[in-house]
């Protein structure tokens, strides 16, 4: 079975894509480019999948898209292994309350709110409504995202990653009035969290980036959060984090670790705790919106990996994972790249954006994403070796590990607003 | 997709050609680009008789490629391995913007 996507073009009006990979981005990009797609072979290998066909969280996502748009046609085949998606008009939502929670014993069936919010952020600059206001209910952060170091479409980001990594990037491109507020934290399995997304559709939106050098960072910020757990767990994580960064690693930067304890009604229905770490550049204004973040969450009662239940181990793992991410990412996290590239695609026609990425960031899932975006927009993203360019820097060793990603703007405009 | 043994080992793949080729899976692109790809059929290129055996069941090849994605995905370092790797910050020291101390900055007071 080839996992590559194929386009038949003449045979039907649909662009035919295979397998369930990049499900959310395929739907979102199809909507923006107004290109009908047909996704086939969704978990159709019975040897690998106990539940073949479209997953319940993907159906939930399609329901959200249905509410967010007008005139969208979705048809799921009898077996669930094939869907037809005909995009409608992106309207937006003014007062939508969307419950993302799925009651399931299988933890992979239940995604956190981030899974639904991330692709929606790409759609926000294209809505017909001037203002969008959506309340999400469900799980605010979930543990299985934590242990996965590689970026996959299945990633459902915790809310802090979205707040501190994604929203500043959108602000960088002129989408200023956007906020994500946590009202309740909820963990797996019972959820109970609540998140509000508020945004104003920008009048001008021309994402353009020219970053040819690695960003240097000077400030570390951390949040140790927990809901429905003993405060001593948070204090132990906090203490261990400070010990690691301070006395053990001797981090020569300013660092600030905050404790975020949730109690009572606002702490959801299940206990959980986690660590969020972020490194930014506070001195140079042009880099201030870029951050490298890392988040590790534990659902206390349901963690598969018992070694991380000990707070000190969690602090250690979170710190090492954070350092790995800094080592791998010259500009932004590996998991943020599809989001950033999607935005860069909406640059003016012919305008080039250039972004430095690390060779370590080219994962199979990233390759799948590049292939999909090429099929939907018919616009190839090119990767160039830095050795092709004349070296102006002294850091030749860095150049060997990095590539230049060149994105040509597709000139997609918010035609939904122009109609009214 | 057949390549010479030398080309495979030199790791000088054109990533743009690899990325958008139809007959190669993303997992294979990843492996070839990172020099991890071990194509047995290439090793057996010299022995013509064995080459036919290697291409006998192409379906098996595809299955292996799909499994490779999972293998790559599950490449996780244990906490001890991570601790050994990050015993200090030397690997990322050039990424940290450390301002020089005032005493050391005396020579550069001109500007």
TrEMBL record, chain A:
One of its GO terms (biological process) is endonucleolytic cleavage of tricistronic rRNA transcript (SSU-rRNA, 5.8S rRNA, LSU-rRNA). It is found in: Nucleus, Nucleolus. It holds the Pfam family RTC_insert. Keywords: Nucleus, Ribosome biogenesis. One of its GO terms (cellular component) is nucleolus. The keyword Nucleus applies. Residues 216-326 form the RNA 3'-terminal phosphate cyclase insert domain. It comes from the Eukaryota. PROSITE patterns: RTC (PS01287). Residues 23-378 form the RNA 3'-terminal phosphate cyclase domain. SUPFAM superfamilies: EPT/RTPC-like (SSF55205). Signal peptide: none annotated. Transmembrane segments: none annotated. The keyword Transport does not apply. One of its GO terms (molecular function) is RNA endonuclease activity. PANTHER family: RNA 3' TERMINAL PHOSPHATE CYCLASE, RNA 3'-TERMINAL PHOSPHATE CYCLASE-LIKE PROTEIN. Belongs to the RNA 3'-terminal cyclase family. Type 2 subfamily. This is 18S rRNA biogenesis protein. It comes from Hanseniaspora valbyensis NRRL Y-1626.
């Amino acid at each position: 079975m080839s996992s590559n996507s194929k386009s038949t073009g003449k045979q039907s009006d649909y662009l035919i894509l295979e397998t369930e990979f990049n499900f959310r981005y395929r739907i979102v990009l199809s909507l923006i480019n107004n290109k009908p797609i047909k996704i086939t072979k969704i978990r159709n290998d019975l040897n690998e999948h106990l539940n073949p066909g479209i997953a319940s969280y993907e159906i939930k996502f399609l329901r959200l898209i249905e509410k967010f748009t007008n005139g969208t046609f979705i048809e799921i085949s009898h077996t669930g292994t094939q869907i037809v998606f005909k995009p409608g008009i992106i309207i937006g939502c003014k007062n939508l309350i969307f419950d993302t929670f799925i009651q399931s014993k299988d933890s992979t069936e239940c995604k956190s709110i981030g899974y639904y919010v991330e692709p929606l952020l790409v759609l926000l600059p294209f809505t017909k409504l001037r203002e969008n206001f959506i309340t999400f209910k469900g799980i605010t952060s979930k543990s299985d995202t934590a242990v996965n170091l590689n970026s996959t479409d299945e990633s459902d980001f915790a809310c802090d990653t979205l707040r501190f990594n994604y929203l500043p990037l959108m602000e960088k491109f002129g989408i200023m009035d956007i906020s994500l507020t946590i009202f309740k934290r909820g963990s797996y399995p019972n959820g109970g969290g609540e998140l509000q997304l508020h945004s104003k559709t920008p009048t001008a939106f021309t994402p353009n980036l020219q970053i040819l050098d690695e960003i240097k960072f000077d400030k570390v910020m951390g949040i140790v959060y927990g809901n429905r757990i003993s405060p001593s767990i948070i204090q132990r994580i906090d203490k261990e984090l400070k010990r690691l960064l301070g006395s053990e690693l001797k981090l020569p930067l300013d660092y600030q670790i905050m404790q975020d304890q949730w109690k009572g009604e606002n702490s959801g229905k299940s206990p959980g705790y986690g660590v969020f770490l972020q490194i930014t550049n506070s001195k140079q204004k042009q880099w201030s919106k870029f951050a490298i973040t890392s988040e590790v969450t534990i659902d206390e009662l349901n963690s598969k990996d018992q070694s991380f239940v000990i707070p000190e181990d969690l602090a250690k793992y979170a710190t090492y994972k954070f350092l790995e991410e800094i080592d791998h990412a010259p500009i932004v996290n590996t998991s943020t790249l599809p989001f950033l590239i999607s935005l860069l695609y909406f640059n003016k026609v012919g305008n080039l954006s250039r972004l430095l990425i690390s060779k370590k960031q080219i994962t199979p899932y990233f390759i799948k994403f590049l292939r999909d975006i090429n099929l939907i927009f018919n616009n190839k993203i090119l990767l160039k070796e830095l050795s092709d360019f004349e070296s102006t820097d002294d850091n030749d060793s860095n150049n060997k590990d990095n590539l230049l990603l060149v994105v040509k703007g597709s000139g997609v405009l918010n035609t939904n607003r122009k109609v009214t | 997709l057949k390549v010479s043994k030398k080309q495979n080992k030199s790791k000088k793949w054109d990533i743009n050609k690899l990325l958008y080729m139809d007959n190669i899976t993303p997992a294979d692109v990843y492996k070839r680009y990172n020099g991890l790809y071990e194509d047995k059929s290439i090793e057996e290129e010299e022995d013509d008789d064995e080459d036919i055996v290697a291409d006998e069941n192409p379906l098996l090849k595809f299955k292996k490629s799909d499994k490779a994605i999972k293998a790559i995905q599950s490449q996780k370092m244990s906490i001890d391995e991570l601790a050994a790797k990050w015993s200090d910050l030397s690997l990322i020291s050039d990424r940290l913007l450390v301002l020089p101390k005032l005493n050391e900055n005396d020579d550069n007071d001109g500007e």
